[in-house]
Design brief:
The complex is a heterodimer of chains A (266) and B (265). Chain A is mainly alpha-helical and 266 residues long. Chain A has 10 helices and 2 strands. In chain A, α1 packs across α4, α2 runs parallel beside α9 and α7 crosses α8. Classes of the chains: A mainly alpha (266), B alpha/beta (265).
């Protein structure tokens, strides 16, 4: 299911669209700036992080990224983020007073902050994937020159990931068809299936390599792309960086709260 | 543009030059494991411009024959040469540059992020400038009817489109010889027919390994029957593939179009 969600996002990233066609490096840099900003907040920050929700939301909406696969993939890492944060509830000695004389462990705040940070950074990453396919990124980074070996390895790894997923799916299908009563194989069978999967992917990777060699692959791949960095890319990156700086340095949440109180308060 | 076929001089005068076979295999023996040969003393020739089919049951050694020709099954005993060059490590780059191999599995053939980039590999590797390579690749994609899908990721294409894209990817390098391994595998009747039309129109020498005997009748001028690593019969497709006893002895069947029709009532 999650493989399908990842493939849907990847495919969406390769589609045509104004956000998809922005230079991939602009989106990658913007996402990196965003992630660094999120991580740089103090550990009890929750409200101050809220304005940052705008970045993944706007990127996703502008790029028309489908919400369901994003949520499916976000859900995958949520237990891990919760596990990393939940210990703070017990081990954080700081206590905070709430209105009404109630005392609460500050661990709950840092737990919420960790969850929020996870949702923000992973959400931004998924919005990036949904608007920029990996091949597009590699192609833009390589330009017209033969790609750097590191980029080639990354790209071929990505290609091999598809092979692995396809082989895994074929194996899972074969299991389901031959064992309709059992949803999951026993550990012993699962182990040999996993071994078989790696052998199959290795064979397929070998065949892929044969095809590459027959077409003249000599260790260097040229993508032949012509990436253009224009004013749209500069504007996108500039606005994102300014937005992140504003969210980090200015009390935006406080200002927003005051503005709302002035508008709707007594 | 196709290069002229290799000429062999047999005498002093120009008239004595004869056309050298594009593929010449003599007494070829190869096995993946010692003492278990897959190919046993094989003799085969593909003449310039000829469309030769190699048919045979599973495990006959058909794909191994192609892999040997491509230089992936070294060392072997006997002789194998393509374009007048012996299949040996120093000549592999030259042989592969003049031969278009379309292998069996569609998904393993296309490895670049888009069909266009995949087709561009050949010209780029040959030193053609990127703009010219792009133009050639687009022309080839247009020829096989895939121009509209040039920017698609190969994984998103149908089997028929993938097959045509792989064909374009090898044709763009203007090979003298096309080697096709089960080209109609996974194709629906329409895609199969489109592929046969494309291959029939090609001027190159073609070596086709297949189980699709109807395609052999449509495309090939000669057929060899391979079994147990040996060539057991060779001849004209309409004669050889009509021999029910011979085909049955080698786990094949007479294609439907050659089978006698039941008398009308």
């Amino acid at each position: 299911m999650s493989c399908h969600a990842a493939q849907t996002l990847d495919r969406h990233g390769a589609a045509a669209g104004p956000v998809q066609e922005l230079h991939p490096l602009a989106k990658l840099l913007a996402t990196a700036v965003f992630a660094v900003t999120v991580v740089s907040f103090p550990k009890y920050a929750v409200g101050a992080l809220m304005p940052l929700c705008l970045y993944p939301l706007l990127l996703g909406v502008a790029g028309r990224v489908p919400a369901r696969p994003v949520w499916r993939l976000l859900r995958l890492g949520l237990p891990l983020a919760a596990l990393a944060g939940i210990w703070n509830v017990w081990f954080d000695p700081v206590r905070i007073a709430l209105p009404g004389g109630v005392w609460l462990s500050a661990g709950w705040l840092s737990f919420s902050s960790i969850l929020l940070r996870y949702l923000l950074t992973a959400g931004a990453m998924l919005a990036l994937i949904g608007t920029t396919s990996f091949p597009r990124l590699v192609r833009a980074l390589a330009g017209r020159r033969p790609a750097h070996p590191f980029l080639q390895v990354l790209y071929l790894l990505y290609r091999h990931l598809f092979v692995l997923v396809e082989e895994g799916r074929a194996l899972a299908r074969a299991w389901q068809l031959r064992s309709p009563q059992r949803r999951l194989p026993e550990l012993r069978i699962a182990g040999s299936m996993l071994g078989g999967l790696f052998l199959r992917t290795e064979t397929r990777a070998g065949r892929l390599h044969h095809a590459m060699v027959l077409r003249g692959y000599d260790g260097s791949l040229a993508f032949g792309a012509d990436p253009r960095w224009g004013w749209r890319e500069s504007a996108f990156l500039g606005v994102t960086v300014l937005g992140c700086l504003a969210a980090r340095l200015l009390p935006l949440t406080e200002w927003l709260g005051r503005a709302l109180l002035n508008l709707f308060g007594p | 543009m196709n290069r002229p076929p290799v000429l062999r001089r047999t005498g002093r005068a120009w008239e004595n030059f004869v056309m050298e076979p594009v593929v010449r295999i003599r007494n070829l023996t190869y096995g993946y494991h010692a003492h278990e040969p897959v190919l046993r003393g094989l003799d085969l020739e593909v003449q310039p411009g000829e469309c030769l089919a190699v048919v045979g049951p599973n495990g006959a050694g058909k794909t191994t024959l192609i892999m040997t020709l491509a230089g992936f099954c070294l060392p072997f005993t006997g002789e194998a040469a393509a374009h007048g060059l012996a299949v040996a490590a120093p000549n592999l780059a030259a042989i592969r540059a003049r031969t278009g191999f379309v292998l069996q599995n569609l998904d393993d053939q296309l490895f670049m992020p888009s069909i266009l980039e995949d087709v561009m590999i050949g010209p780029l590797k040959a030193g053609v400038a990127p703009a010219a390579a792009r133009e050639r690749a687009l022309a080839l994609l247009g020829q096989v009817g895939l121009a509209a899908l040039a920017d698609e990721f190969p994984g998103h294409l149908s089997a028929g489109q993938k097959r045509l894209a792989t064909l374009a990817a090898v044709l763009v390098a203007a090979p003298d010889l096309l080697v096709l391994d089960e080209p109609t595998l996974y194709l629906d009747p329409w895609a199969r027919r489109a592929l046969i039309r494309q291959v029939a129109a090609l001027p190159q020498s073609r070596l086709i390994v297949t189980h699709d005997l109807e395609m052999v009748l449509d495309l090939c001028s000669r057929v060899v029957l391979l079994d147990g690593g040996r060539i057991v019969a060779a001849g004209q497709p309409h004669e050889l593939l009509a021999d029910a006893a011979l085909l049955a002895a080698h786990r094949l069947e007479v294609p439907g179009s050659l089978q006698p029709r039941p008398a009308a009532r």
